[in-house]
Amino acid sequence: MNFSLFRQRSFALLIISEATSLFGTFFLNAAFALYVLNLTGSAEKFAAVLALGMVPYLIVGPIAGVLADRFDKKKWMILLDVLRGMLCIGLFVFSLFETITMPFIYFTVLFISTCEICYGPVFISLLPSVVKEEELVSANSFEKTINETMKILAPFLGTLVYSLVGIGPVLLVNGFTFLISALAIFFMVIPKVEGVIFRQIHLFKDMWEGFKVFFIDKRLTSIVSNAFLTHFFMYPFILLGFPYIIVTILGGKETDYGIVESISTIGAILAIFIVPPMKKFGVANNIGIGILGMCVPVIPLLFLGNPDFIQLLKDSDYYPVLFFGLISFLLFLAFSFYLVFFATFYQTVVPRELFGRYGAGMMLLNGLARLFGFLIFGYLFSLDSLLYAVIFFGTGMLLKIVVHIPFMVITKNLEQQRKQAAQGKERVGTQLGAGANE
């Protein structure tokens, strides 16, 4: 990998900002999931809280990309980081005197999600602006490697700290990580788009332009659809199902869930080192390989429909961690590999001036997918067998393969056209050379 990228100040600070912010977020999310499960004890109620976090994506999402493309990116990101940091620190102080009840959780989920939907499109637009196009694959690989490394420690430490001292200190750590992220952004040099002035009269026009980006290339439409399926099937199954099955159904320890999440990150990190030798197979093929790899872990999950297998997991302190750890490892090994090429493709196709609106549109669609995914999986996990949820999850993974087929076909046709064009130029050159010799 190209380590010289870290000599570029803005790229290094961008990675530091994202890494610290993500560490705090996953640190909080792991503890928050267990805290809510302890308060509710219900898969459906837990799913409702997770679904609530998707509501701002639907309300704020349509305008978030417009704001990202119009406002000063640096000030906007610092403001959002500081607001999230102060909220978490404020909740920590509150927890010293009172119990954090469900109404506070609802508010926190809504507020942080609102900031995230406003923050995300800006962040998405930054990476391609601080590195060269030919460095994007390496930059994306570094970004995933460092961020996934942060995620190894975050879930385990989050569950450990929560189990030892409660939710308050977890909020304090999360608050400081947001403030560190803001400080890193403060020292960044972010390129500005000249001549851009926000005019409210063009708001809806700009929103529509953001959605039209999805259709400028049928391959882009394909990967956007693929992302929708990922957030509809995979994320709800993992974020809702894993903690619910491990802690509530199997009666595992809270730290078991944290260990499983950390194991998943090891798979994600190893995937990054597979990327360089696989680049020769092309973006389309590698995205397909990643999708096929995500289907593999569905097979062992089918055992969850067997009561005897569930009892076997319950009777052991180690089997749940080993089983779900292996599933997570394989799933995120494939997913992280897929994600590098997914990001590299859209970063080279989407116009730079529309990155913010593209990012907001993606977050809106993904938020909508997660909203309904959480609600559906919440119902499926409340049934008498886990097999229903597993089959539904597997169906989603198969649909991802189907959606990727147009991408493969179009890419193959384009490659053939380029090859034919190159051969045509070569023949013309040969003929011109022969004519000159005559």
TrEMBL record:
UniProt topology in membrane: Multi-pass membrane protein
Alphabetized CDD domains for the sequence: MFS_MefA_like
GO molecular function ontology, one term from the record: transmembrane transporter activity
InterPro entries reported for this sequence: MFS, MFS_trans_sf
Lineage, highest ranks first: Bacteria, Bacillati, Bacillota, Bacilli, Bacillales
Record's keyword terms, sorted: Cell membrane, Membrane, Transmembrane, Transmembrane helix
Subcellular location: Cell membrane
Organism domain of life: Bacteria
Residues annotated as transmembrane: 12-34, 46-66, 78-97, 103-131, 178-198, 228-251, 257-275, 287-306, 318-346, 358-380, 386-410
Gene3D superfamilies membership: MFS general substrate transporter like domains (1.20.1250.20)
Oxidoreductase in keyword set: no
Gene Ontology CC annotations of this record: plasma membrane
Keyword Lipid metabolism applies: no
Record-given protein name: MFS transporter
